[in-house]
Amino acid sequence: MLDAQRFYLFFIAALVLAVTPGPGIFYVLARTLAGGRREGILSSLGTFAGGMFHVFAAALGVSAILAASAVAFHTVKYAGAAYLVWLGIRMIRTRDAELPVEALASSRSPFGQGIVTEVLNPKTALFFLSFIPQFISPRLGHIFLQFLIFGMVSVALNTSADLLVVSLAAPLGLKLKASATFRRRQRIASGFGMIGLGAYVALTDSK
Predict the structure, then answer these.
(1) Quick one: which of 198, 184, 136 has its CA closest to 1?
(2) 78 near 198, Cβ under 8 Å?
(3) CB 84 within 8 A of CB 198
(4) Which of 45, 69, 74, 143 has the fewest CB atoms lying closer than 10 Å?
């Protein structure tokens, strides 16, 4: 049901994105620094649950788009490729931006807040709709299951990176906040990775 080459490319891309510092990692890091390791773990599990909500919703949407029109499906793929290129350019242009790690109030349940934070984040939904369809092959059928597998792998990698951040919270927090060079290199590498992925999709056969 899955093409091995596509899955390998997806796994590498998803892994690189998972370990790139972003809003999710900084949310979990802030909860850990504010409330300890337990809050960090619960926050990570909450964002996992919220991420899976987006995966199921996006899988249903993409399946419906393909059922309606193959042209519409390819339109989504190319629009997604363009979005990834735009994200990559934006990352490179903002490579010197500050990424402060602020303490969060821990009055709310970290698990529940993690779910709400992820579910109500429209950027998460947009990212899944732009990223995962690039690796789906309509000729293999089972579009919903393909999307679900890719989505679960992506969310699992993100959560694994979050849990690693929880275990390294203190030194990582200082490193991310203090080292402009570290942040710059992370953003530049991720930016070029996204641009390359978008270009790959646009220039290869998407069947």
Answers:
(1) 136
(2) no
(3) yes
(4) 69
Type of residue at 29: L
**Is the separation of the CB atoms in 32 and 42 below 8 Å?**
no
Report yes or no on whether pTM surpasses 0.70.
yes
- Cα separation of 51 and 49, whole Å? 5
Output 114 or 177, whichever has higher pLDDT.
114
As a whole number of angstroms, the distance between CA 111 and CA 129 comes to: 25
Distance CA 153, CA 157 (A): 6
> Hey, what are 126's tokens?
């947009």
How far is Cα 94 from Cα 114, in angstroms, rounded to an integer?
A: 26
Give every CB contact of residue 61 below 8 A, 6+ residues apart in sequence.
Answer: 129
Neighbours of 132 (CB within 10 A): 24
Q: How many CB atoms lie within 10 A of CB 187?
A: 23
The CA distances from residue 40 to 9, 18, 51, in Å, are 30, 17, 16
Report residue 27's pLDDT band, with 50, 70 and 90 as the boundaries. Answer: confident
* Encoded amino acid at 81, one letter: A
Q: How many other β-carbons are positioned within 10 Å of the β-carbon of residue 31?
A: 31
